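Recall that a protein's primary structure is simply its ordered list of amino acids. Everything else, from secondary elements to tertiary packing, is in principle encoded there. The following example makes that idea concrete.
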Amino acid sequence: MSDTDNTTLSQDVSFDLLSNARRRFVLRELQQTSDEVELVELAERLAAKENEVPRDDLTAQQRKRTYVSLYQTHVPKLVEAKVVTYDQDTGRIAATERADELANYFREECHSPPWALAYGLLAGVGLVAYAALHVVNAGPLEPTHVGGTVIFTLFLVSLVHYTRTNQFHNSGGLVPVERE
């Protein structure tokens, strides 16, 4: 979307950008679309939210006050940090990859299952079953069947573990829009 550099935002800059409800609103709205949005459109949505009225019921004063605030203060600050791009000719604004970087501050930690315990239990059950087959003659069931079943089950558990871990790391949070 943009030509941001590879450096990350400092915590101070990130917290400063996220300290204002209007900037958080802009970031959240841009995160939820993959396209550019007109600043006028964003200002109307924000004014409607802040004034708790439908967009059609906004006064010209409410629209203008919100637009000017975004245009003069909040968007330039986001552009300077390379979190958004803004084209003054078209009046369109878009998020950069850095918006997701800011959203990471709001990612919820998920509690994953105790994978070491799952692997240990599976290995323990396999070992006990394997030893029991050596002690007791189980007829058609051979220790190699148990070994193959344990290896296949370990593969499935590993696949689930990988998938769950990958989903957690790839699921970015969204910037909240609560009012200050």
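The first strand starts at residue 37 and ends at 38. Strands lie at 37-38, 84-87, 92-95.
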